[in-house]
Amino acid sequence: MAIEAIRKRRSVRRYEETEIPDEKVEEILEVMRYAPSWANKQGWQVIVIKDAETRNKVAEVLEGNPAQKAITQAPVLIVVCMDPKASGVQNGKEYYMTDAGILMDQIMLEASDMGYGTVFVGRFDEDKVREILGVPREYRIVTMAPLGVPAKMPGERPRNELDDMVHWGKW
Ligand SMILES: Cc1cc2nc3c(=O)[nH]c(=O)nc-3n(C[C@H](O)[C@H](O)[C@H](O)COP(=O)(O)O)c2cc1C
């Protein structure tokens, strides 16, 4: 059941050095072929970084981010880049951000289901990351996540009750 993977997932910020076979990374990234997106445009490109030097360079520009160290520890870093033109804009809402969020969530859930840890990282200097990774101007770098074997599994974070969030019928 999806709820089991959803409840099991945590933001992991401490990792073992254990390598992840490329086939496992590919297995996780298979979700890219099935995730929903605006008009099925699939306007995403993913960069898989294993090289420690590059990961360290990216981590350097995450100064003050609680996930900074995780990026140096985990053996793989996944970076999600989006072409905003391959998604829609409605009432000022730019749906390429939604496409990217859904994609990363599905990557994180599949990784969690396979026993790996991830953490959604949204706060970073995009221009500096663009320079390090050579991402073309027409793409936005929306999110990245370290991927690895958790060294420490955090407990469940506090969550609001359904009654505080759900309106049946109308607001
Ligand atoms: C849009 C978004 C941006 C986030 N950015 C960061 C980030 O830059 N650094 C970080 O350590 N965690 C980041 N997180 C992770 C959240 O802090 C985390 O999901 C939340 O505290 C709930 O904890 P859980 O994922 O373990 O359930 C982000 C999550 C989301 C959805």
Summarize the SSE layout with pairings.
Blueprint (H helix, E strand, L loop, with lengths): L1 H7 L13 H8 L14 E6 L2 H9 L7 H6 L2 E7 L6 E2 L2 E2 H19 L3 E2 L7 H8 L6 E9 L23
Antiparallel strand pairs: 1-2, 2-6, 3-4, 5-6
The structure holds flavin mononucleotide.
Flavin mononucleotide (FMN) binds next to loops.
Describe the structure.
The chain has 171 residues and is α+β, with helices and mostly antiparallel strands. Helices cover 33% and strands 16% of the residues. It is built from six helices and six strands. The strands form two sheets. It has a four-stranded antiparallel β-sheet, sandwiched between helices. Strands 3-4 form a two-stranded antiparallel sheet. Strand 3 (89-90) and strand 4 (93-94) form a beta hairpin. It is globular, with a radius of gyration of 17 Å. It starts with a helix and ends in a 23-residue tail after the last strand. 28% of the residues are buried. Flavin mononucleotide binds next to loops.
